[in-house]
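Example S7 (structure tokens).
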């Protein structure tokens, strides 16, 4: 897609009432733009959890695994975003993008999910790595909310999950123990 078509499509998001859909289309347009520089953003964090749970979890921003390089800043600027602290923002479209995860995330070399959004692609952290992220937060931060979301993911995707991968990537005994509990609860 050329730059003017991409920018025009982004501007039409003013009419998109569904905030999650607006974020995904904007991400697809950003992904298309960054492809020109050979950079592929990966959707992580709450927005990935929102996608995998079909809106069961709701977030207001878009977290990405993305390098902090000038090409990324240029791509956001090309789409009318400005930096505000750690975010790239389009307040007029209620869009907030953050790259809390640098390029080189473990999930970047693991299987990922590619979602088509209006003929464009969005790359999402793999379900196993997202579940591991929630398990680690549950264990390290003693977060019951993250434990609940890890359980939800395990139940939703029980048959699809690579449980061996999960156990191999869980570095600590407490994380492996939680994965085993989730596996039993999921009936696999």
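Recovered sequence:
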């Amino acid at each position: 897609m050329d730059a003017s078509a991409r920018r025009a499509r982004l501007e039409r998001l003013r009419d998109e009432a569904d905030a999650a859909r607006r974020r995904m289309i904007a991400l697809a347009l950003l992904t298309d733009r960054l492809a020109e520089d050979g950079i592929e953003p990966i959707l992580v964090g709450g927005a990935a959890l929102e996608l995998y749970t079909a809106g069961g979890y709701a977030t207001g921003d878009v977290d990405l695994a993305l390098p902090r390089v000038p090409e990324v800043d240029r791509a956001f600027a090309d789409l009318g975003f400005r930096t505000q602290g750690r975010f790239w923002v389009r307040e007029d479209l209620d869009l907030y993008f953050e790259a809390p995860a640098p390029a080189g995330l473990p999930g970047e070399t693991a299987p990922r999910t590619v979602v088509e959004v209006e003929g464009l692609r969005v790359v999402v952290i793999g379900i196993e790595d997202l579940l591991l992220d929630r398990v680690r937060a549950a264990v390290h931060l003693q977060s019951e909310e993250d434990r609940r979301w890890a359980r939800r993911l395990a139940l939703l995707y029980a048959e699809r999950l690579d449980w061996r991968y999960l156990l191999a990537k869980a570095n600590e005994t407490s994380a492996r123990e939680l994965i085993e509990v989730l596996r039993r609860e999921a009936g696999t």
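Notes on this example. The two ends are 44 Å apart (CA to CA).
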